[in-house]
Design brief:
single chain; 119 residues; alpha/beta; three-stranded parallel sheet; globular
């Protein structure tokens, strides 16, 4: 079984020269990269994009394996919260990869270990 690194959305950095796509290639050391959604959660609840976004999140929750997979939290905070909430409803604990600018690599933030500390 191979690991997957789930990235909340395609993300670009604002630079003086315009938008530059974020480089997620260092996360490939932890598994195959897949994006959970194509964009942030739509703000208009009556719009046609909200069900599309929700289907993308549901597909992720169904496929996410808390024993092998990781999440890179990018994008809109409410989207990250909604994705985490959907995982919680499904009873799946997230494992995050957190980028360290000081070390120039990802660190694992394991939700299972965090839960054990508070038992």
């Amino acid at each position: 079984m191979s690991a997957t690194v789930w990235i909340c959305k395609h993300q670009a950095l604002r630079r003086n020269t315009g938008l530059t796509p974020m480089d997620f290639s260092p996360a490939e050391a932890y598994g195959k990269i897949r994006f959970i959604t194509k964009g942030d959660m739509p703000g208009n609840s009556l719009g046609h994009m909200r069900p599309v976004w929700a289907r993308e999140v549901l597909e992720f929750v169904t496929e996410y394996n808390p024993l092998t997979d990781f999440i890179v939290a990018t994008g809109q905070p409410s989207s990250i919260f909604a994705i985490g909430h959907a995982l919680g409803i499904a009873g799946k604990t997230p494992r995050f990869l957190v980028w360290s600018h000081e070390d120039n690599h990802y660190h694992i933030l394991d939700g299972v270990a965090m839960e054990a500390e508070h038992v």
